[in-house]
Each structure stands twice: as C-alpha cells, then as structure tokens.
C-alpha cells in the first residue's frame, strides 16, 4: 500500500488502521445492501409474471429510456461505413419485416419488398406478398451504405431460387439469378481460436459457413458459452458453383465438433433433418441461446453491479450484441408480459411448457404482444440498451418453477426422436460414408474436392 503524501512516517501504523477500518465498513455496507436487495427482491428483479397477480402490475414503472420509437436501425446514427447484414430467416420473417429492421426509409422498405415479391411471385407461379412468411433457415444478405440507405439484397429460397434486388439511381431493380448451378462435396477441419466466426474465417472460409454450422448445432451448442480455445471441428459440406465459379455454400452434410465443454457433438443430414451419430434427431424443444454468434459479457452469479457499485446477484446472462440484433424465442410458448421496467427497460416474458419461462431484457424494440403464441426461433425483439444498462446487450433469464437458474448450464431437452426403425440401416450407411470422408484429411485445413 502506498503512503499518502500528506502523512508523516511516524503515523503510518495509525493510517493503516484507519484505512483498513474504513474499507471494512464500506465493504460491509455494500455486502449488506446487496444481500438485502437479493432477499427482498427489489424492482431490479421484477416478478415472474406467469406467477404474479394483477395487483403486482404496479411494479412495472414507466421509464423514459423505454420510449424508443420505430425500428432500432433508425436510432443508430450512420457511422459513414457501408455495412452488410447476413443471417438466416426465422419463424415469422417476411420481406417487409427483414427490410424494415435493416434500414429506416419506410418508402424504400416498401419499394424493395414489393419489387422483390413480384419477382418471386412470377417465379413461383403463385401469389406471393411482401407480408407472406418466408420459411425459416433461408439465407439473406442486405447491404447498407454509410448513410444507412439500402443498396442491394439477396435472398435464397433454395439453391435454384436466388433472388437479388439493387438500387439503381431512383429505382429498384429485382431479378432471379440465372446461372448453371453445380455442387462439389468438400471438407474443412479447423481448431477454434476465439469465436466460431473468426475460426472459420481463419480457415479461409466465409461467415456464411459459420452461420450454417451454428444453425445446425443450435439445439446442442451455445456458441457464446460452450466453445473453448483448442476445440476442433470437422465439416463435410457442399460448395456451390455458378458458371464454374465458387458461389456460396449448399448443405452441411456432416459435422463433428469436439469440445472441452461440449464433448463430442455430431450432425448428419438424413431425409431433410439432422441426427447425431446414434440416430437421434438434433431438433429439440429448446434452443441453447436466444441470439446468433455473439459473446457473453457477464455471466450468472454474484458480481459488483456495474452501475449500482455493490455486490448483487446476476440472475441471468448478458449477451453483448449491437443495437438492432434479432432476439429469438428459445422455444414455443405464450407471451405473458411485454412492456417496460425501471431496471429491465423494454422486456418480454414468454411462458413455455412444464413450468418454464424465459425473459429477454434491455430491448430497443418489442415485436410481439401479450397473449401471443410464438414459435421457437421466432424474432420477438431487438437488442438495445433501455433501462439500467451501460451499453447494447441482451439480459437473458430462464425461470423453472419460479426459480431463476443459470441459462448456460440448463439442459432442457425433451422427447428426442430417433431414425425410424425401417430406415436405420440406410442412415448408418449414409453416416459412415460421411464420417469416412473426413478421416484422410483430419490433420490439415485443405478442402478436398
């Protein structure tokens, strides 16, 4: 400990005693305040609304930080740099919703959505409106300029149906990609360095493949919490060629992830669904995380609150993410509350089966209503920084039978389905063929054609 410049050396023992006493008193007050806050359940931890009576509704107080009008993209000033929004569609997504969440000009949103919908309608040979739902898991890319204005977009309904839209002066031109498509089966083996996106990029592949991998393992691996440096991943995938030039990716046929925390996780595509190597379907009732590939900024447990300054129980997980990032429902359920809390800002409660509930807080925008039924991976809100928050992030909680539990450790897996008995032999043949494909090149990162 350093001496204060205003103290004389003979008094240093007395100074130590005073400083130590003051420190102990301050620490004791902080701990007492935090413990009392935890025991009494203040407004920082709003009630679990699926179990609360109407009389408790007064605990939700209006807060100016919750008044965030319109799409969150409109609340973020342009940084002068072009941006690319690349993702997979979720349940409930439409052309209109995808574009309205990406740029602000309502007229441009409607113009682009209508233009693209008319081209899709002509190709499908049946009515298709900008408000029609797009099946989940479809790749889309939207390019925005430095002023936050639309430039171009691509949406892939299936490998032979890729549609583009582009701004040309004061008009929007949309068309279907007209190319001769070819696919080659290739492989990739890589080690995880930081996050899954950076690891795939370091292996000379693109973010699109990382998103596809995360989508395949979305029920089993939380790519924010579960991965560790040194984990290994092997993928057998289709590379798409258009007019003999690489043009994105097709399906992931087989993937194996070996992780320090996850253990061995496998995924084999069979009859349009993914199964592990034992023939058990990967699809489950609950997702591992409510966001795509981002990062955990604060975990579950006691911590010094970044704003309040004292020890307090952190009853969920903070996922760091840019404002406007889509937030997904982790499972089918019913919205039991949507609104504003003084500490939570804009937040949503969703009741699931078997006494489970999930909560999503600090949102910039809410996209669902109380009483509404939602589907797994449906976009229900957008990341923000409303309420008691130091920056854009999602505070995510899981409640089981009235008790808040650690979202990164819970395993809410129910009713796994196996490959039907008559197809078991065929599945094993397919799975073994894909697994053998990886073995010769398991020690290098070069794709094999």
Describe it:
The longest helix has 29 residues. The chain has 449 residues and is an alpha+beta fold. The N terminus and C terminus are likely disordered. The protein folds into three domains: 101 residues, Nuclear Transport Factor 2, Chain: A (Roll), CATH 3.10.450; 126 residues, Nuclear Transport Factor 2, Chain: A (Roll); 111 residues, Glucose Permease (Domain IIA) (Distorted Sandwich). The protein is 19% helix and 33% strand. Strands 11, 14, 15, 16, 17, 18, 19, 20, 21 and 22 form a ten-stranded antiparallel sheet that branches. A five-stranded antiparallel sheet has the order 1-2-3-4-5, with helices on both faces. The N and C termini lie far apart (64 Å). The protein has six helices and 22 strands. α4 packs across α5.
Determine the mean pLDDT: 76
CATH class of the largest domain, named Alpha Beta
Q: Helix segment count?
A: 6
SSE order, one letter for each helix or strand: HEHHEEEEEHHEEEEEEEEEEEEEEEEH
Rg estimate, integer Å = 25 Å
CATH structural fold name of the largest domain:
Nuclear Transport Factor 2, Chain: A
Looking at the chains present, what oligomeric state does this protein adopt? Answer: single chain
The backbone outline, from C-alpha atoms, is globular
Helix content: 10-25%
Strand segment tally: 22
Could you give the distance between the termini? Answer: 64 Å
Structural class: alpha+beta
Main β-sheet, in a few words?
Answer: 10 strands, antiparallel
* Count of the domains: 3
The parts where pLDDT drops under 50 for at least 5 residues are 1-20, 29-64, 67-73, 441-449
> What percentage of the residues does DSSP assign to strands (E)?
25-35%
CATH architecture call of the largest domain: Roll
């Amino acid at each position: 400990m350093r001496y204060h410049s205003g103290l004389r050396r003979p008094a240093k023992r007395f100074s130590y005693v005073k400083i130590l006493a003051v420190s102990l008193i301050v620490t004791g007050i902080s701990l007492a305040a935090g413990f009392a806050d935890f025991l009494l359940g203040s407004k920082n931890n709003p009630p679990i609304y699926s179990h609360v009576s109407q009389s408790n509704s007064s605990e939700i107080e209006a807060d100016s930080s919750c008044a965030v009008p319109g799409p969150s993209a409109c609340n973020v000033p342009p940084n002068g740099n072009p941006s690319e929004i690349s993702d997979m569609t979720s349940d409930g997504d439409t052309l209109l919703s995808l574009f309205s969440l990406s740029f602000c000009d309502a007229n441009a949103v409607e113009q682009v959505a209508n233009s693209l919908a008319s081209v899709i309608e002509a190709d499908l040979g049946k009515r298709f409106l900008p408000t029609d739902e797009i099946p989940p898991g479809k790749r889309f890319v939207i390019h925005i300029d430095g002023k936050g204005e639309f430039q171009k977009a691509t949406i892939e309904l299936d490998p032979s149906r890729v549609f583009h839209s582009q701004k040309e002066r004061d008009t929007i031109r949309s068309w279907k990609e007209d190319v001769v498509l070819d696919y080659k089966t290739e492989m990739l083996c890589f080690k995880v360095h930081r996050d899954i996106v950076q690891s795939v990029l370091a292996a000379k592949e693109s973010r699109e493949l990382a998103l596809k991998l995360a989508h395949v393992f979305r029920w089993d691996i939380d790519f924010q919490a579960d991965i560790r440096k040194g984990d290994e991943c092997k993928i057998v995938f289709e590379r798409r060629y258009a007019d003999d030039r690489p043009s994105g990716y097709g399906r992931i046929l087989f993937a194996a992830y070996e992780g320090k925390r996850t253990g061995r996780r496998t995924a084999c595509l069979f009859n349009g669904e993914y199964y592990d190597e034992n023939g058990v379907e990967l699809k489950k009732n609950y997702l591992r995380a409510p966001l795509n590939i981002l990062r955990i900024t604060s975990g579950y447990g006691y911590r010094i609150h970044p704003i309040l300054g004292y020890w307090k129980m952190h009853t969920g997980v903070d996922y760091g993410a840019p404002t406007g990032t889509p937030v997904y429902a982790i499972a089918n359920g019913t919205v039991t509350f949507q609104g504003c809390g003084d500490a939570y800002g804009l937040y949503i409660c969703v009741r699931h089966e078997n006494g489970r509930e999930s909560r999503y807080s600090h949102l910039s925008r809410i996209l669902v209503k109380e009483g509404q039924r939602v589907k797994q991976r449906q976009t229900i809100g957008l990341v923000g920084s409303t309420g008691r928050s130091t920056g854009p992030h999602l505070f995510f909680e899981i409640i089981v039978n009235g008790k808040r539990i650690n979202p990164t450790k819970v395993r809410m897996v129910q009713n796994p389905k196996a490959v039907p008995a008559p197809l078991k032999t065929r599945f094993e043949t397919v799975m073994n063929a894909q697994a053998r494909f990886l073995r010769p090149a398991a020690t290098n990162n070069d794709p094999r054609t």
